[in-house]
Design goal:
By secondary structure, the protein is mostly helical. It contains five helices and no strands. It has one domain (2-209).
Length: 211
């Protein structure tokens, strides 16, 4: 009678550990899937970020080349002024000077933003790149760090829960060994099985809430 009760109780424990193992397996699979999704989202974000940086650099350097052309025309207009030449030459130079400065003004108003010209007359290329990236960040998600951080967390959770599945599997093995054994050592086997099962429960809680 006592042996039958022992086997019945052991069977209940075996079923309980089996259910726990299935739950932990589902949790590990879910964590692995979440990690894969986070990796995918992180890669997409990183690709968008690189694409935005490349496009912004191309556009910014086009504007910078336009600025250098503007600077050349502006300086050429300045060089055309010579107070030592005769009046006729001065008038001719003035006509060319106005045309050159007109070209410079057209380039300035058409091909780049004047706000990027600094007080010393240089072009603030980095400011344009920073503003373009900030604008892109408002329109798209370009920060991949949170996704990769989540991916690392989910990978750790999945690995921990997989190890927990092994603990539950060993618990299952000891409980089965106790169930089929007729000798007194079966109490030792069931004790080990219960301890490992409790460790598996603790591992499941840690994997779910602390990792």
């Amino acid at each position: 009678m006592e042996n039958n009760r022992f086997k019945s109780n052991t069977a209940v424990l075996v079923a309980f550990v089996t259910v726990l193992g299935a739950i932990v397996a589902c949790m590990a699979t879910s964590a692995s899937s979440s990690a894969a999704n986070a990796d995918f989202d992180g890669l997409n974000s990183a690709i968008r970020s690189q694409k935005a940086e490349i496009i912004n650099e191309i556009i910014a350097y086009q504007h910078y080349r336009a600025f250098t052309s503007y600077s050349r025309y502006l300086e050429l207009g300045n060089l055309l002024y010579d107070p030592n030449v005769d009046e006729k030459t001065s008038l001719a130079n003035g006509v060319i000077q106005r045309e050159v400065w007109g070209v410079a003004s057209g380039i300035k108003s058409t091909f780049f933003e004047s706000r990027y010209i600094t007080a010393d007359g240089s072009y603030d290329l980095q400011r344009e790149l920073d503003e373009a990236l900030a604008e892109d960040s408002q329109n798209e998600d370009l920060n991949s760090d949170p996704y990769f951080a989540k991916s690392d967390q989910m990978h750790r959770r999945s690995s921990f829960l997989t190890a927990d599945m092994i603990v539950l599997a060993v618990s299952f093995w000891f409980l089965q060994l106790a169930q089929v054994n007729e000798k007194r050592i079966k109490y030792f086997w069931i004790a080990i099985g219960i301890l490992l099962g409790l460790a598996g429960v603790m591992g499941m809680l840690i994997g779910r809430y602390l990792i």
